[in-house]
Amino acid sequence: MSLVAPQNSVMGLDSTIASLRICIIGAGMGGLTTALSLAAAGFQDIHVFESASDLGFVGAGIQMAPNMARVLDRLGVWDEIAKEAVVLNETSIRQGATDEELAHVDLRYIKEAFGFEHMVGHRSTLARGIQNGCLRYPGVKFSFGTLCEDVDVVSDRPSFTAIPRKDPSKEPQRVTCDILFGADGIKSVVRSAMLKHLEADAEIIDTNQAAYRIMLSREQMSRDPELLKLIDSDKVIRWIGERRHIIAYPVSSKQIYNLSTTQPDVNFASATNSQYTTKGSKKQMLSVYGDYCPMIQRMLDLVPEGDACHPTLPHLAQGAAQAIEDAAVLGVVMAKIPDASPQSISKALRIYEKVRKERAETLVGLAAASGREMHLGAGAAQEERDKAFAALRASGGKGHVPDRWADAEVQKMIYGFDCFAVADQLFDKEFGGM
Ligand SMILES: Cc1cc2nc3c(=O)[nH]c(=O)nc-3n(C[C@H](O)[C@H](O)[C@H](O)COP(=O)(O)OP(=O)(O)OC[C@H]3O[C@@H](n4cnc5c(N)ncnc54)[C@H](O)[C@@H]3O)c2cc1C
């Protein structure tokens, strides 16, 4: 199903509104989907600036939960992305040291409950699918290899300097627009400029955790029957241990097995690039998981080289999904502004904030809480947690799951949220009175 506007159409937007000059800094999942959502809403002058020379996104899988799929389906790009994604039918939470199963949760109810299956895929497929959607609209332009600096959010119209990174013959340009969206990730220059202007704190809080992102090919795993069983499954597995865990699932039509670890961070806190991603050390990784079971050791030993990252905690697998929901809500509220005045734009963006802030903060908090519970060491708290896992096993996988990601109540709150409908209703209710 696609509610996307046909090419060149303007969804009933007044021409002064449709021609507002919109700039987006950052072509991650958030920036790409914001461009698509605004183009689908009828905006015709959208320019995305990205410092990397292309979409990149090598080397990592991503969970594409129903709330993400719902947005991408409404924007007309989900079918292409879902084609090579893998449906997750079950989740298994296991002791890392022994591979003993602590809990098993059936995920097959998800499609019926939320309209979409819980799928996993390759990040590059997701990003390219969204970008392909953008390219259907002539009003969306991309400038890759362009670093944005010196953001001005104080003047009447926002502006920034766009610096071509790889072509010294091109001069930096000062770019001015009507609306500037900062989708520039964890070290956002837009957010820093805004918070500075508001004299607020722009400090990043260090979680002291890092993740290794690993992809193994079917060929690498095919010589080992136990590993082959993993890549052939429809299962997401979390192997937990004190202060660490590994989550793993097959992606790319089961041609790749994706693993993502989380452990105390001693090496990456000072990573300097914009996404906190840097090369990891295989030796270091093997020693961090040195007490995990032999099957996991064999799997980690297949890793040719490492990529490690250090952004927000990924334990609910919702970071990109939330950036994509942000983008959907921006499309809804911006399409409903009655005129192109800065006052109306600002009111619409305040409604965006009302729809998004509490939800995003709740999810960030839940992810952190889930991480704490998964990473418990021996003691009373761990005993309580393991009792909850035992009760879950006894009930055949129904009831509270200490790994919040797999808890049905949490899934309902996250996956059942229709951000389009919530934004639409809140706009109708509050815009007039603001
Ligand atoms: C290990 C791990 C696993 C995860 N798993 C999942 C999952 O399963 N499901 C899920 O939904 N989420 C997951 N996430 C979270 C998700 O990856 C991120 O939250 C999401 O990708 C953030 O998207 P974004 O667009 O906000 O930022 P980013 O992806 O960081 O994009 C920001 C972009 O802006 C560009 N940029 C930055 N500064 C500038 C500048 N000054 N000028 C120009 N360009 C600039 C950057 O190059 C980058 O391309 C995971 C995260 C990690 C670390």
TrEMBL record:
InterPro entries: FAD-bd, FAD-dep_Monooxygenase_BioMet, FAD/NAD-bd_sf. GO terms for molecular function: FAD binding; monooxygenase activity. Pfam families: FAD_binding_3. Gene3D superfamilies: FAD/NAD(P)-binding domain (3.50.50.60). Belongs to the paxM FAD-dependent monooxygenase family. PANTHER family: MONOOXYGENASE, PUTATIVE (AFU_ORTHOLOGUE AFUA_2G01950)-RELATED. This is FAD-binding domain-containing protein.
